């Protein structure tokens, strides 16, 4: 299995006039790499855990927040039905889900929690303009919610890949049946979050209907 970045095919998100992207806001692979996104210590465990919890199918985005020890704090999934959306729309969708599952960290000088995005889509593992728009949306949503921007992971029929790192695997894939959480290498331990008004539900699966 090979990994890397490649221009999207002509039938993807380019217009017929000059190949200009319909995505108004996206990050190119070089920009994403230069941003210094923190590496996941064990991406396979993260991917397997999110796949087991959310059972993503193509067009499903799973936004997850990890604590300092890479434990899962909160996660939410939704189906992004608009194929022509740009990074601005993706940012708003991600921010909306983040606000539903945990309070922001904007009062902290330095972010202590990291948001990662798993996006299940058609196609192969190579970078596309749609990926670039999700990257832009993730980075901006993290800034507005006081989080560190973490990995962007694609899940396709060929398996999963952490874009920009060259790390990936064949299982799980978009065709895989979810494992029971007890069958994964290590199960996440959610943290209890509290605000002035009491406990916050930290694990909630949201789906756009």
> Order of SSEs, N→C?
HHEEHEHEEEEE
* DSSP, total strands: 8
Provide the helix percentage.
10-25%
Mean pLDDT: 79
Biggest sheet strand order reads 2-1-3-4-5-6
Indicate the radius of gyration in whole angstroms: 16 Å
Beta-strand percentage range: 15-25%
Low-confidence segments: 1-22, 182-209
| First-last Cα distance | 34 Å
Quick tags:
4 helices; disordered C terminus; 21% strand; alpha+beta; 209 residues; six-stranded mixed sheet
Give an account of the 3D structure.
- This protein has 209 residues and is α+β, with helices and mostly antiparallel strands.
- 24% of the residues lie in helices and 21% in strands.
- It has helices at 29-34, 43-54, 87-101, 129-145; strands at residues 60-66, 72-79, 114-120, 148-156, 159-162, 167-169, 193-195, 198-200.
- Strands 2-1-3-4-5-6 form a 6-stranded mixed beta sheet, sandwiched between helices. The protein has a two-stranded antiparallel sheet with strand order 7-8.
- Helix 3 packs across helix 4.
- The protein is globular, with a radius of gyration of 16 Å.
- Mean pLDDT is 79; it is low at 1-22 and 182-209.
């Amino acid at each position: 299995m090979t990994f890397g970045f490649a221009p999207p095919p002509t039938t993807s998100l380019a217009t017929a006039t000059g190949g200009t992207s319909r995505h108004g806001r996206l990050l190119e692979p070089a920009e994403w790499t230069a941003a210094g996104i923190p590496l996941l210590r064990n991406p396979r465990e993260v991917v397997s855990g999110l796949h087991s919890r959310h059972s993503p199918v193509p067009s499903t985005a799973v936004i997850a927040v990890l604590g300092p020890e890479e434990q899962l704090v909160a996660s939410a999934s939704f189906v992004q039905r608009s194929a022509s959306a740009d990074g601005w729309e993706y940012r708003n969708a991600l921010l909306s889900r983040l606000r539903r599952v945990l309070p922001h960290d904007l009062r902290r000088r330095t972010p202590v929690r990291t948001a990662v995005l798993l996006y299940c889509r058609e196609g192969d593992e190579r970078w596309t303009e749609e990926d670039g728009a999700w990257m832009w949306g993730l980075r901006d949503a993290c800034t507005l919610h006081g989080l560190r921007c973490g990995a962007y992971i694609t899940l396709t029929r060929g398996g999963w890949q952490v874009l920009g790192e060259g790390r990936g695997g064949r299982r799980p894939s978009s065709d895989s049946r979810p494992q029971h959480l007890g069958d994964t290498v290590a199960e996440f331990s959610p943290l209890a979050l509290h605000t002035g008004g009491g406990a916050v539900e930290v694990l909630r699966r949201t789906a756009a209907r």
